[in-house]
């Protein structure tokens, strides 16, 4: 009788061990984790032109560049950070809604919202030197030193050949709940893509290899962060004039962020 009990016990232990071996191990790729929470601090505040419906923001060679949207108001500009005023600017066709920009190989690439075009300008004088067709909507651009990276408002990022704008690959963006939509303004930094998520106050940190959202910052309280209140002028449309625009300043080791028609541009550091 004892022999049968021991035999049954042994079988049960073996069965349990096999089941345990089939379970996902901690740290394995099967374990789905939520993005980490990114805290931030505001280290400086600069003026921002409230007529600028910000679509793209970047720092290149210690100079700030911005692109804006809305038909009749769309432009690319080099901006004086200390004053918020344009040093030089170029308005595009009044019928076109301009979107995000990136600077690559001394050229400025600019997406358009629904005009199915990408404009390319010479960085030194803002003269248009090329135009490419673009299928669907264009939202934002950045680059990783080899490819342009575009967002189209979906949950996918597109890697593009800078010379032809042909799609090299598509990268789905996901978190613990699945696909993450409304990926907007982009900034590539050291293997990660930082992105505004349109119609939210979130900045996402995305692994550029896997597409996983590894961290998230909520900037809802940025106008009153750290106990100091920056009273904004009444935004024309609080539902539209949302957080949008993120640029990494390598010289400062910080990010510059703003929103559509916001009166301020904030310099922040993530912790």
UniProtKB/TrEMBL annotation:
Domain of life: Bacteria
GO molecular-function term, one example from the UniProt record: glutaminyl-peptide cyclotransferase activity
A Pfam family recorded for this sequence: Glu_cyclase_2
Record key words, sorted: Transferase
Descriptive protein name: Glutamine cyclotransferase
Lineage: Bacteria, Pseudomonadati, Bacteroidota, Chitinophagia, Chitinophagales
């Amino acid at each position: 009788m004892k022999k049968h009990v021991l035999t049954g016990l042994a079988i049960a232990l073996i069965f349990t061990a096999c089941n345990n071996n089939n379970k996902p191990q901690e740290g394995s790729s099967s374990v789905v984790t939520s993005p980490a929470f990114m805290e931030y601090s505001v280290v400086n505040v600069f003026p921002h032109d409230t007529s600028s419906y910000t679509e793209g923001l970047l720092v290149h060679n210690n100079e700030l560049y911005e692109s804006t949207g809305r038909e009749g108001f769309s432009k690319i500009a080099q901006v004086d950070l200390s004053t918020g005023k344009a040093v030089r600017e170029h308005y595009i066709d009044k019928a076109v809604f301009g979107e995000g920009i990136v600077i690559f190989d001394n050229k400025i690439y600019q997406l358009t919202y629904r005009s199915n075009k990408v404009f390319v300008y010479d960085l030194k004088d803002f003269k248009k030197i090329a135009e490419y067709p673009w299928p669907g909507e264009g939202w934002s651009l950045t680059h990783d030193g080899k490819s342009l990276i575009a967002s189209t408002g979906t949950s996918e990022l597109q890697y593009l050949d800078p010379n032809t704008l042909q799609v090299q690959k598509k990268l789905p963006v996901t978190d613990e709940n699945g696909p993450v939509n409304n990926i907007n303004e982009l900034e590539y930094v050291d293997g990660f893509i930082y992105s505004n998520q349109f119609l939210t106050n979130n900045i996402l940190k995305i692994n550029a290899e896997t597409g996983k959202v590894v961290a998230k910052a909520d900037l809802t309280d940025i106008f009153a962060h750290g106990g100091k209140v920056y009273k904004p002028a009444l935004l024309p449309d609080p539902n539209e004039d949302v957080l949008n625009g993120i640029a990494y300043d390598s010289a400062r080791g910080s990010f510059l962020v703003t929103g559509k028609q916001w009166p301020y541009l904030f310099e922040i550091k993530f912790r």
